[in-house]
Amino acid sequence: MIDLKDIYKIYSDGDSEIRALDGISLNIKEGEFVAIVGQSGSGKSTCMNIIGCLDVPTSGTYHLNGTDVSTMKDDELATIRNQTLGFIFQQYNLIPKLTLLENVELPLVYRGYPPQKRKELAYAALERVGLADRYKKFPSQLSGGQQQRVSIARALAGNPKVILADEPTGALDTKTGRDVLEFLKKLNADGTTVVMITHDNEIAAQAKRIVRISDGKIISDERQAQNL
Amino acid sequence: MNLKQSFILALKSLQTSKMRSFLTMLGIIIGVAAVIILVSVIDGFKSDLVGQFESLGSNLLTVNISPRGGNRTVDVDDMLQITDENPELLAYCSPTVMINQQAKFSTETSSTTSVTGVSEDYNKIQSLEISQGRFLQYMDIHKRSKSCVIGSYIAKEYFDDNAIGKTLKIGGNTFTVVGVLEEKASSQESSDDDKIFIPYTLSRTLNRSAKITSYLYSIVDKQRSEEAKDVISNALYKVFSNSDAYTVIAMTEMIDMIDEMTGKLTLILVGIAAISLLVGGIGIMNIMLVSVTERTREIGIRKSLGAKKFDILSQFVVEAATTSACGGVVGIILGIIVSIFLSGLLGFKAVISVGAVVIAFSVSVGIGIAFGYMPAGKAAKLNPIDALRHD
Ligand SMILES: Nc1ncnc2c1ncn2[C@@H]1O[C@H](COP(=O)(O)OP(=O)(O)OP(=O)(O)O)[C@@H](O)[C@H]1O
Ligand SMILES: [Mg+2]
Asked: Cα distance from B25 to chain A (closest Cα, Å)?
């Protein structure tokens, strides 16, 4: 499903260069639940952004669903992001002036669905995260945990094959964080591939597979038998 | 994402920051209002002027003979003959002689009353209606009878509306009133109703100069005023062999001249007003650039969710066009209100031109699109990951 080969991401800053990703190869199959862990600045987000087609590698090849996306144009990448991927960000990234329903609707708007259909799907997604009754509210009227649930609803509204979550629990307290994690596990149990970045070893321990990154390199990659 | 959604989004965006939207629109509002006001006031001025000329009779030809025409000269009979020879073009002819004498009514002297020497056809040329008595007749002219026809103002003011048979004095000569004209200009002083007409044959007695230099013709068909003009010009050229010795002016030409003049005036003034539209457009571009910067993160989110370049581009272009169109509508309304107000103030009816309204609206939308395109292009080109990191 996700196949990274020799991915480098190098930022040159005058004469010094930063190797954010230093030769990463990673293969993630459909239905996996992968946790990417590592210290701050190790390159986790950079890696995730490349997987999420938000960024392109300096070199290396990336096949998503069998197609080479490392050479794709901006608009083609936008289509991939829209149809195959769902994002959950640490900072939720909801649009403040849109209602919850409108926020969740957005990926479907860009998919070109008619208003009726996308409203139904967005409402159903909000129902799944238990916030359907507040669909007319604005993000600022919710707690952090609730906002993160809305962003999960937005990620899954379009029924993507892969959910990418960059520290989804980073801004939440332990209990709310655990709720979010449970939700991701449930999604994974229903067949969605989940890739999640986390700092928290306890949370990572819940994943089926843990990939550790340090200084832009993968230093360990282990499957956790107890979660399979 | 289709344009309708972009439009709804744009309206929302306008609503959330009303003051800023209003200030952004201000340039467009002023520009559009200025165009509407200028066009409608000038149009109103024009139709007022044309109306005045037409009330003088748009079927008229004025002939002036230069007093220094040399030895050669034309007399009234020559001029009348041109009419007789061209009945398909010319209807009537009358000399018009301004009498440089004041009219005196028993004891009062009027300095505002104009006295004109004319022939018996003058009332037909000018379509003057008689309310009492009769107009001057051939025999009055022929016999140089001291008869006169007076305007309604004089009849009311000096004769208590009972003027027929009464007398008045012009340059020491006593005239008998034989007719009163119907009211034309609500019987105001020095208006069309403050006039006296006498037989032109008496002008020699009253004025020092014996020469008659001014004639009025009425033409049969307005469409053929050029031909009628040529006929008279040719006849006069035969006599004078010099085209500077006389002038022939058609009233329709005057109207054409007014058209041309006001057309140029409109063009110049609207050109100036258009500069304000341009400044308004730059204002919109400026605010859109600020807006793109402020909403970089939103753009990043939209892109991460699958918005293509065109989606972002159209969102911002539509927003700019909507802002500018709203400004256009407000400007049109303001322009119409001010035009109506001004028309009351200036004393003529401002003509709200549908063309000007349609053009002003289209131009304001066009300006929004043109000046919104650059900021929108900037937004569309943003790299999603950089945009997402922006705060
Ligand atoms: N746009 C950029 N320009 C220059 N350097 C960058 C840029 N983005 C990331 N980096 C560098 O790349 C390295 C990896 O960054 P990355 O954001 O992937 O770290 P991370 O593992 O996600 O850290 P954290 O846990 O703090 O989020 C860092 O050293 C960072 O400074
Ligand atoms: Mg990170």
From this structure: 22
